[in-house]
Amino acid sequence: MFGEDLDAQRVQEFVHDAVNARRSEEGVSTLQYSADLQEVAVSHSEDLAEEEYFAHDSPSGETMEDRYEQFGIDCRLSGENIVQTWYKERVRTDDGEQYYDTNKALAEGILTQWMNSPGLEL
Q: One Pfam family of this protein, by short name (predicted)?
C-alpha cells in the first residue's frame, strides 16, 4: 500500500492547526477546537457524500443554521467552508494535478483549496 491509512481525526487536527497557523501569520486570533462543531461538520460531510451534492444547503433546503439548531448549538456569528477532494486518487486543482497519500498532505490540500476559494475571510 502506498502512503498511509486515512485517519479522519488526524486530518481534522492537521487542518485545525494549519488554519490557526495561517490566522496567526495574518495577526488574527486563533480558533478554539469544538467537538460540537466537529460533530455538525462530520454530519454535513456524510450527507454531502450520501446524497451526492456539494453545497452549503442540502437539496431538501437544510441550511447551516438548521444544522446548528438540530445539534443544539446557539451560534449568532458563523461561517462554513466546504471542499471536495479525494484521498489516494488523482485530484485536478488550479495548481495542477495533486495526489494526497498522507493525512498531512490531505489536510494541506484542503487548506489550500479553502484559501483559494472566492470570498474567504480569516
A: CAP
Question: What pTM, to 2 d.p., does this model score?
Answer: 0.82
* Contacts by residues 59-68 (CB-CB < 8 Å, ≥ 24 positions apart): 67/40, 67/43, 68/40
| Contacts made by residues 74-83, CB under 8 angstroms, sequence distance 24+ | 79/121, 80/56, 81/114, 81/117, 81/120, 82/44, 82/48, 82/54, 82/55, 82/56, 83/110, 83/113, 83/114, 83/117
**Mind listing the pLDDT tens digit of every residue in the chain (122 residues)?**
466 899 999 999 999 999 999 999 999 999 999 999 999 999 999 999 999 999 999 999 999 999 999 999 987 777 888 888 899 999 888 778 999 999 999 999 999 988 888 775 65
How many other CB atoms are there within 10 angstroms of residue 116's CB atom? 12
Nearest Cα residue to 36 out of 80, 68, 82, 77: 68
First-to-last C-alpha distance (Å) of the chain: 37
